[in-house]
Amino acid sequence: GAGVSQSPRYKVTKRGQDVALRCDPISGHVSLYWYRQALGQGPEFLTYFNYEAQQDKSGLPNDRFSAERPEGSISTLTIQRTEQRDSAMYRCASSRSTSEYNEQFFGPGTRLTVL
Amino acid sequence: KNQVEQSPQSLIILEGKNCTLQCNYTVSPFSNLRWYKQDTGRGPVSLTIMTFSENTKSNGRYTATLDADTKQSSLHITASQLSDSASYICVVNKLGRDDKIIFGKGTRLHILP
Fold it and tell me: CB-CB: which of A42, A55, A103 is closest to B99?
């Protein structure tokens, strides 16, 4: 596609429910990143993949958060047993290669609200 | 500790005026530094990337500077326009296999007509 897409754009869920957020990177992009962004703040790094391999998950806040990219393309960020503090904008970005010099292209984000 | 600090937190200026945003970092070893512009409700978009050997880089009315010795960068906006109203985020990449990306909290810029 033309850019990074994410779905759903908005998700409202009740505390304790699991949610799965999807990211479709730009076709052919090797690296895929997940970020969480609170209102008025810069993005907070969660995890990233090169191809299907998860390279760094040190930013995941706790073990309720997990991510996968089984075929090296689409990625899913899963939050189990959601809590109100998980409410935020979750953004995905992709870049052409694994080089740290490559620009990341960001998706529109999924706004998660946990009631 | 790898950190990126931006100042000011927010800034309001009149259309047509110039402004300068600051970014100080403690990331080491340093690979590169990017300035992103993020419009409200949109994802960040890269404005410039600077590596260790670069001191200044321009992108239209945006000029970024880098002093790798003092670990400071600035983003200067000339002749501001209403469309410059956005958050400007400084992002530093850490060199090496331990590929860390550290984001600043951003400066929120408001341009008044």
Answer: A55
Q: Find the closest chain A residue to B88 by CA distance.
A: A42
For residue range B37-56, list pLDDT tens digits in order: 988 877 788 899 898 888 99
Q: Give CA–CA dist B113/B111, Å, rounded.
A: 7
Closest by Cα among B70, B66, B34 to B53: B66
Contacts of B100 in chain A (CB under 8 A): 45, 56
Nearest residue, CB atoms, A42 vs list B46, B100, B106: B106
Q: Amino acid identity of B51?
A: T
pLDDT digits (tens, 9 = 90+) for A12-63: 999 999 999 999 999 999 999 999 988 777 788 899 898 999 988 888 999 9
Q: Is A10 in CB contact (< 8 Å) with chain B?
A: no
DSSP string, A53-99: EEEE-TT--STTEEEE-TTSS-EEEEE-S--GGG-EEEEEEEESSS-
CB A6 within 8 A of CB A22: yes
